Amino acid sequence: xxxxxxxxxxxxxxxxxxxxxxxxxxxxxxxxxxxxxxxxxxxxxxxxxxxxxxxxxxxxxxxxxxxxxxxxxxxxxxxxxxxxxxxxxxxxxxxxxxxxxxxxxxxxxxxxxxxxxxxxxxxxxxxxxxxxxxxxxxxxxxxxxxxxxxxxxxxxxxxxxxxxxxxxxxxxxxxxxxxxxxxxxxxxxxxxxxxxxxxxxxxxxxxxxxxxxxxxxxxxxxxxxxxxxxxxxxxxxxxxxxxxxxxxxxxxxxxxxxxxxxxxxxxxxxxxxxxxxxxxxxxxxxxxxxxxxxxxxxxxxxxxxxxxxxxxxxxxxxxxxxxxxxxxxxxxxxxxxxxxxxxxxxxxxxxxxxx
Amino acid sequence: xxxxxxxxxxxxxxxxxxxxxxxxxxxxxxxxxxxxxxxxxxxxxxxxxxxxxxxxxxxxxxxxxxxxxxxxxxxxxxxxxxxxxxxxxxxxxxxxxxxxxxxxxxxxxxxxxxxxxxxxxxxxxxxxxxxxxxxxxxxxxxxxxxxxxxxxxxxxxxxxxxxxxxxxxxxxxxxxxxxxxxxxxxxxxxxxxxxxxxxxxxxxxxxxxxxxxxxxxxxxxxxxxxxxxxxxxxxxxxxxxxxxxxxxxxxxxxxxxxxxxxxxxxxxxxxxxxxxxxxxxxxxxxxxxxxxxxxxxxxxxxxxxxxxxxxxxxxxxxxxxxxxxxxxxxxxxxxxxxxxxxxxxxxxxxxxxxxxxxxxxxxxxxxxxxxxxxxxxxxxxxxxxxxxxxxxxxxxxxxxxxxxxxxxxxxxxxxxxxxxxxxxxxxxxxxxxxxxxxxxxxxxxxxxxxxxxxxxxxxxxxxxxxxxxxxxxxxxxxxxxxxxxxxxxxxxxxxxxxxxxxxxxxxxxxxxxxxxxxxxxxxxxxxxxxxxxxxxx
Lengths: 355, 537
What we know:
- The complex is a heterodimer of chains A (355) and B (537).
- Chain A is mainly α and 355 residues long.
- Chain A folds into 2 domains: 14-92, no CATH class; 110-352, MetI-like fold (Orthogonal Bundle).
- Chain A is built from 15 helices and no strands.
- In chain A, helix 5 (106-141) runs antiparallel to helix 6, helix 9 (212-249) crosses helix 11 (264-292) and helix 13 runs antiparallel to helix 14.
- Chain B has 537 residues and is of the alpha+beta class.
- Chain B folds into 3 domains: 1-64 and 212-282 and 515-537, Periplasmic binding protein-like II (D-Maltodextrin-Binding Protein, domain 2), CATH 3.40.190.10; 69-205, Alpha-Beta Complex (Dipeptide-binding Protein, domain 1), CATH 3.90.76; 289-508, Dipeptide-binding Protein, domain 3 (Roll).
- Chain B has 19 helices and 19 strands.
- Chain B has helices spanning 3-27, 58-67, 117-130, 136-139, 148-151, 170-176, 187-192, 201-204, 251-260, 271-277, 308-315, 320-325, 356-365, 384-396, 409-417, 436-442, 457-460, 466-475, 481-498; strands spanning 37-42, 72-74, 82-84, 87-92, 98-103, 152-156, 159-163, 214-220, 224-229, 242-247, 265-266, 283-298, 332-334, 373-379, 401-407, 423-429, 501-514, 517-518, 535-536.
- The longest helix of chain B has 25 residues, at 3-27.
- The interface between A and B is large, with 60 and 59 residues.
């Protein structure tokens, strides 16, 4: 995908335009193929799991003729490929179907659950990158020092402690015992119907409405799960920053810079980190994308009605329209963030501009 | 780094921490729930619709019970007693086939529309026309799309007649009319939302058209369900202005919310949570035996399991008392009959206990002195998983080698419904408050063929029982309540001895609540847990 942004400068306009069109074509082709593959795989996995999708709709008690009728209504009596073609046709018309669990159009459901995940993942990434990067730099600069040990221990805990347990412990300590933060859920019941869910992002909606009390309450509910996710992404980001930085600090240009008598802070922050930032962008983007898929366990412990819980619950009930809709969103997130990190590459690394 | 920079940094850190604590603390001022609002933490992800003609899930049942009225209801304290809800009085014709209901005058729906006999008739017609999962509760009286309009009709503004196809026991007919599916919907409102002749089906899935004490204000699947007082309600108005159900899947999270006062009631606590809360003075509990029974069943297509001695032997291989004392402590009551206690004629006989020697003798008699191998489909939730593992251990002592096949709930159920299992552990809840609901599934199998029209639990285990089926059919027509009761007693005795079902326990539903919550009583069926009778101090 990088090709899109690496056209040679200074060439004749028509050549540049043709190149650009070609690159754009290749890019769009890749996107279409990605979506198609994603949908096909999800669709067929959904159809081979040994769960009868009719069960989720009619329950265990329905008489046989009701079951048969619903099976036909869902088109489940048709051959698999035909079901897929019909589904694709509808998707192309913008119809993602109705979720059998919520009785709502799938996209309406996703418009409801995705902002919850977006809010959580964004704050989580801000915390993770905001602390993780400086910590990683510090660890690389003073190898074997306190920060380095800290990064190692954090990564170890991050990789080995189940997030479910840590979430519950965090709730017990910060919510139940200390009362510093709000509990599970996105907002206290008192504020539940005080603001119109304009964007679905609680902080934004309450701020727009000027309901600052509700805003503070939403923030107090958000901070703990976001910190938890932030911790896990911080463990990863700091570890990666450390190794990228170590790599850069061993380069000859650093020696040159030192020889020129530049201050150590300038060398670290302006020279080394600037170069380490290029691969770091991918790390942060991927970690963000990972959080945007929704974290089922975190969402379960914190009763957070997000995307992860939605997709998992749908999958367990073979609610395939909902699963496929969710998959498209996750796919779009990945494609979008890949594109974004490509763009950032271009700004951060001059070589990609003038090759 | 010098000492002074260190202290300076430490100082900055402390300030930052203090500021952070201040910001966070601001929002967390202990938020007890408002006095006029009841907050219930409950796993409500089973709800798929708000339409009483389709709704058949456990948690949805409670919502319907609080928001929709019906002709009759049963007394929560004594389910054998019925009282008129919308109906003022009713009579049954001498031939036992025609029921005439007189409605209470001057009643209104939440919308303000008057409640008439036509609304009741329309509601029944609609159920039969839409024909969703619970429709059989009404169609078992012989209603079809073609005849229902002549069989159920308004003969006056407040007079309704219902004509059934056989002279059923009146208790049976009336008991079925207490079910959610017999809820009365607001005809004018529903029809104003009709699209393409769907009788308002698309609209009512997420909306409300009832007359009950609480109205449904908002439902966001897997997130929240809000009920609000209906000021047009005909009976005693709800003391609470609002009841909010919050979907909280995890029991530990429910417990934290309850302890902290952010929820008033928690509904899915584990036996361990309940034990731990017993010492907490701010929290009380209430429990009611439900119409749900848990069982292990054996597919009669498996030649070993089809032997009568093997079936009996397996019943002696479950550690009933051990399981009661541990795995189902607080949440279940040992019970060995297919009718749960509370239903007409339910037996409390408990002839079986763990007896490995007796089981061994029976196995030898069946020609399997060294036991056999068998698979067991178990869904990975508690307490069924624990019970299954316990049974695996005790059965091993008689040489029976059980291989547990763990699976997700819907996955094992799909397999069970296709009769592809050997052994299965499941539960069955009464669909309506009459013994026929369980007799119909445990002790009735009119056609054991693979493509049978009706597939009750007896069918799922390929248990062919023409005699018992006849008895069940006769019991539902017995108009003398005492004789009817005796017939169910007989069927249960037969079932205990010969069936391929080990009945294990009856569910005991426990709710934990904050001490300021008053009047909470869990109903025997989910539609009889009345939140509108609850208040807060």
